[in-house]
Structure formats: structure tokens, C-alpha cells
Amino acid sequence: MSAASSAIFISDLHLCPSRPSIARLFLDFLARQARQAEALYILGDLFDYWAGDDALDDPAEPFNATICAALKQLADSGTRVLFMAGNRDFLAGPGYAGASGAILLPEPQLASIAGAPTLLLHGDTLCTDDHAYQEFRAKVRTDAWRQAFLAQPLAERKARIEALRQQSEQEKSLKSATSMDVNAEAVAAALRSHGYPRIIHGHIHLPALHTHAIDGHLCQRWVLGDWYNGGSYLLCDASGCRAQALPPL
After folding, report:
1. Which of 3, 87, 113, 221 has its CA 20 to 30 Å from the CA of residue 165?
2. Residue 167: its pLDDT value, please?
3. Domain spanning 7-245 has what CATH number?
């Protein structure tokens, strides 16, 4: 992958028809701020859920197709759009890529951003203290599970996803905040195995800049914010990285 001299990073927008104000904010962001960068990296959970690429052809629910069309316009304007799946939209595939103009990225991804080695993750793989979630993640990311799930009718898939979401929310209420945050050793292992880069990730919805001292190296870890109560992004260029909040529409 070619290096980006300026890049914008977002994650955890959880776009859905029931939150139209956030969808409008995102469409405005694509038309304004995103066009000023060479690349837009979406690090997972762009959508509240993705039941399969065939949902793009569902005339009863045009929301996802509208979002993808706006992303395609951005890509066609010259800004590269790069997408890494999250825990909510890991079923996005070639159909999504074609509709949105996005390049699908494997996880993890080591990229050069304005000359700085940068490890990109959604972030859930760092939350190793949440053993139940990691077991579930490992199961649903297999080809066998994916093929079996996508073979079901779209309506059944959506119903099953809704049931899984409700179960997840119930389980979250019983988990400690620590278990759902990143594990320090998992972060250290990721830094060691990739040459002590900068890390950018989302998932935990706790935007911040962390500095890790690992084996004599000082490494930055940027956590992206969610879009539940507004929008934000991380801008990285030759001057470094800085978090930006979007003004409300």
C-alpha cells in the first residue's frame, strides 16, 4: 500500500436509520473535511450492523446504499477510502467494497502515515481480558460460520443479529469496565511484533492519547471516539496527529 501524506481516521459511527442526525453529520463530513485529506481510514463499526452485501439491494431499506453511494463519491473525488471491519460490520465484503469504492484492509494493518509507521486495528483484539467476547469473535470470523450465516434469508439474518445485540448489551452490564478495555500486555505484544509503531484504533469508545514505554521505545496509542453524541476524527500528517471534533449541524 502506498504511503499517505495526510490521513483522517474514524471508527465506531454505528450508522443506522434510527439516528438520522448522525447520518447527516457523516454525509456532511464526507463532503467537507474528508475531501481535504489524501486518505480516509474507517477502522470498523461504520454501521450499527451489516447483515450481508445483499442488503444493499433491499428497496425497503435504502439507508446502507445511500451511505455507500456517498463514500463512492468521496473515492471518485480523489480521496482514498480504506475500510477495516469492526465487530459490527465484519460481514462487509466485495459488494460493499464495490458500492463504496473502499479498499478492504486486513487486520492488523501496518501503514506508513506521513512517514510514520502506524499500526491500524479496530481494537477489539486488544481486549483480551474479555474471554467470552474473544471466544465469540473467533467463532464468527471463521469461513464456515460466515458462509452458513450468509446462506440464511436476509430477514432471518437481521433478526438473529438483533437477538445477538440484545444479548451483548445484557452481558455488558455484568462485565467490569477493566475487562472491556485493552489489555496492557496485548498492547505491548502488538508493539513489539510490529517494530514499535504508533497505534490507532477504536472499539472501546474512550478517545485519548496514550504513551507506552516498551523495551526502551516510547510509542503513541491513539483511541478514536464514537459518534453517539457527535462526530470526531483523527487527522495525521507531517506535523503529527491531532483529534478534531466536528461542529454540530
Report:
1. 221
2. 84
3. 3.60.21.10
